[in-house]
Amino acid sequence: MFSGVASRLPGTTNPLYRLRAQLEKQGERIVDLISGNVTEHGISFPQPLLEEILLAASRRSQVYRPDPFGQQGARKAVAAYYEAHGVPITSEQVLLTPGTSISYWYCFKLLANEGEEILCPRPSYPLFDYIAALSGVRMVQYLLREPRSWAIDLEDLEARISTKTRAVILLSPHNPTGHVASEDEIEKLAEIASRHRLAILSDEVFSEFHLKNGTVPRAGRCAAPLVLTLNGISKMFALPGHKLGWMAVSGEKGNIAQALTALELISDTFLPVSELIQAAAPALFQDGGEFLRHYVAEIRKRYETARDLLRGCSRIRISEPEGGFYMTLQLEDLEEERAAEEILKREKILLHPGHYYDIPPHHLVLSFVQKSEALRETLPRLLAVLDNL
Ligand SMILES: Cc1ncc(COP(=O)(O)O)c(C=O)c1O
Question: Domains plus CATH for the chain?
């Protein structure tokens, strides 16, 4: 009755999540130190402002006039955002989507036939595998190197290119290592993409969250044949449930035109973006700046709290992230699955072993977006478990 894809998508949970379910059944409260959902940790778009924006938007969206690219006002707001960041993108180069995850699916359909390949980083954000399975493309991993602060190994990347390769995913800031690709890395990546006629899919969902006061270099400025920059309001404005993302298409003129024609058709097939959130987008960008500044400062503060607490432990080495919501811990001599299990069992704290992200052995992954008070309460307990293993 079911397709091959439906049968292959796993329905089973792993041992750590089975343990979590068992503990919850016994009435234990688990501290989730892996969720990057800031709305659960005291950060949300100011409610009175959001209500005002959504009310005005609902009045403006009474008559349904769908546009497969998205409403002009919202696309102009996205283009203005890029202009302010020095990326020459016009509103005609922007297509709205219900979020970055679906933007990936559009990109895979746009660029690769069944069985063709898209390069993605290793370690990697786990959702890629599912989107690839659903769209029939093959993910081929290129390496990020921990001793070089998880920089892209460009030689390894180029060696993985085959006649079936169609695109390369750049994730910057990277989830979960926190690596931010430098201008130089992006330029070299663009040279490789040009030599092999590949598109670059640049996932910038953490672009606002540079942890060291710097800015995140943008692939939309580079000289690759085609760049699809993906972002949305989930992380940027802490509005993951409002479901608005976009793709900004740049590169060679002919490629931009061809990509936009195909994307228009893909989007027109579903018209999936809420008109309400599209109508709200200009005001979110215009009035959300002050919130965003506080939000970024708060994320930096939480990161510094976590880093300072973790620095004290001799059993781990932290690879300091430059951006994003996550960090990796290298365990000196401990087995990661056992460490994660013991931390959950003894202290009811959930974090992930590195193999969930294809990180080399002996790593843990956590998110530092919990409130600083919660980090100060939780992290010493976690370190005590590691000290006693
Ligand atoms: C690297 C990365 N890309 C994309 C997404 C999904 O973004 P969206 O909520 O816009 O679908 C996430 C969500 O956490 C993410 O971490």
Answer: 4-44+290-388 (3.90.1150.10), 47-287 (3.40.640.10)
pTM value surpassing 0.90: yes
Q: What angle do CA 297, 124, 232 make, to 5 degrees?
A: 50
343 touches 233 (CB < 8 A): no
DSSP string, 165-178: EEEEEEESS-TTT-
In ligand 1, which atom is closest to the CA atom of 102?
A: 11
How remote is the CA of residue 296 from the centroid of ligand 1, in Å? 17
Atom of ligand 1 nearest to the CA of 240: 9
Measuring from each residue's beta carbon to the nearest atom of ligand 1, which residues come in under 6 Å? 36, 99-101, 125, 171, 175, 203, 205, 232, 234, 240, 245
Residues whose CB is less than 8 angstroms from the CB of residue 273 and which lie 6 or more positions away in sequence, other chains included = 70, 96, 97, 98, 243, 244
- The 10s digit of each residue's pLDDT in 265-318 is 999 999 999 999 999 999 999 999 999 999 999 999 999 999 999 998 888 999
Q: Which atom of ligand 1 is nearest to the CA of 104?
A: 4
Q: Angle, nearest 10°, between helix axes 372-388 and 336-347? A: 120
Q: How far is the CA of 323 from the centre of ligand 1 (A)?
A: 14
Quickly count: other Cβ atoms within 10 Å of residue 55's Cβ.
11
Contacts of 147 (CB under 8 A, 6+ apart): none
Helices and strands in the chain: count of H runs, count of E runs? 14, 14
